[in-house]
Amino acid sequence: MAAYRYPRPPASEITPRGLYEQRRTFMKGLGSALFAGALPGSVLFTSASSAASLETERRAFSTDESKTPIEAIKSYNNFYEFGTGKDDPKKHAHQLRTDPWSVQIEGEVEKPGEVTVDELISRYTLEERIYRLRCVEGWSMVIPWVGFPLKALLESVKPLSSAKYVAFETLHDPEQMPGQRRDIIDWPYFEGLRMDEAVHPLTILAVGLYGEVLPNQNGAPIRLVVPWKYGFKSIKSIVRIRLQEERPVSSWEARRPNEYGFYANVNPNVRHPRWHQATERRIGEDRRRRTEMFNGYEEEVAHLYEGMDLEKHF
Ligand code: MTE
C-alpha cells in the first residue's frame, strides 16, 4: 500500500470544537510524517519465511474486505459513558474534551510516567491497519484504523520481569461522561490483556480512522484495538496503563462473569448465554455470515492459547 500524507479534513465537515482543536494539534504534531501503511510482514512477524507467508501477514494487517462506510463507523457505537443506545455516543460524545490529554503509565516498569497524546503521535510512525471489529452482540465492521503498535509504547517504559498483564483505564469524569452517572458498569471502564497479547504485532493503540483524527464516539483521543477479540476489549479514551503481576478484572467481567470472560477471544463455538456467536451481521449487509475463530486472525494468534481450554477460558 502506498504511503500517504495525513489528509486535510474536507472544509465542509462540521467538526465539534474540541475535535477541531485536537485535529490542529494532531496535524501540527505529525508535520511531514507519513503513514507507513502495512509495514513489510518480515519486520513484524519474524516467523515469516516464504513469499506466501509474507502475503498472509500483509493481509492480516490490512484485510482487503470492503471497508464499512465512515458514517456507519461514526454513528453506530458502543460507548456506555455516553449512553447505552447505539446512537447515543454520536449525539453526546462531543462533550468530551480530548485536548490536552495524557496517559499515565505505571506499575511494574523501570520508567513510569505520563505522556501526552501529542507526544505519542510525534514519537511513533503511524500506520493504517484495516481490521475487522466483531462485537459480542453479533454485528461487525471493517475499519481502517490509524495507530501504532502498543508494543512500542510498552517497550519504552521498560517492563520488569514481574509485569505479566497490562490493565487499561478510561477517563472517569461523570461531568463530561453522563453515562457514568448511571450504575451500568463499575466505572471507570477497565480492561486487561496478558503481556503476550499486549505485545502482539496486531495489537495497536489507535489515534485515528479513515485518515482522520479519531472521532470522540470512537474513543478519542486514544483507544486500544485488539482485532482477534470481541470489541469490548478495545477500551476507549484511555488515561491509564498499568503493568502488573496479577490478572486484572475488566469492568464487564466484574459485572457479569458468566457472560464476559477475561480472554474474550472471538469464538463461534462458545455460546454467549444471551446470544449465538456462530454468525454475525456485517453493518451494511443484509445476510448473516459465519463468524470465524479469532475473528479470522487464527493463523496469527492461535499459538498464544495453545493448550488452553477455550470453552473454560472464554
Ligand atoms: N470503551 C469504553 N470506555 N466504554 C465502552 O462502553 N464499548 C466497547 C469498546 N470500548 C466501550 C469501550 C464495545 S462493547 C465495543 S463493541 C467497542 O468499543 C465499539 O467500538 P466502536 O464504537 O468504535 O465501534
* Domain count: 1
Number of strands: 14
Tell me, what's the shape? globular
What is the CATH homologous superfamily assignment? Oxidoreductase, molybdopterin-binding domain
Corresponding CATH architecture = Alpha-Beta Complex
Helix content: 10-25%
User: How would a crystallographer describe the biggest sheet?
Assistant: 7 strands, mixed
Q: In CATH, what is the class? A: Alpha Beta
Euclidean distance between termini CA atoms: 35 Å
- Helical stretch tally: 10
In N-to-C order, the SSE pattern is: EHEHHHHEEHEEHEEHEEEEHEEH
Ligand species = ligand MTE
Mean pLDDT: 87
Report on this structure:
With 314 residues, the protein is of the alpha+beta class. The protein has one domain: Oxidoreductase, molybdopterin-binding domain (Sulfite Oxidase, Chain A, domain 2, Alpha-Beta Complex). 21% of the residues lie in helices and 22% in strands. The protein is built from ten helices and 14 strands. It binds ligand MTE. Ligand MTE binds next to loops.
List the helices and strands and how they pair.
Layout: E1 4-5, H1 17-30, E2 34-35, H2 41-44, H3 51-61, H4 70-75, H5 88-92, E3 102-107, E4 113-116, H6 117-123, E5 127-134, E6 139-149, H7 150-156, E7 165-170, E8 190-194, H8 195-198, E9 204-209, E10 212-213, E11 223-225, E12 238-244, H9 251-255, E13 279-282, E14 289-290, H10 298-301
Parallel strand pairs: 3-12, 6-13
Antiparallel strand pairs: 1-2, 3-4, 5-6, 6-9, 7-8, 7-12, 9-10, 9-11, 13-14
Helix pairs in contact: 1-6
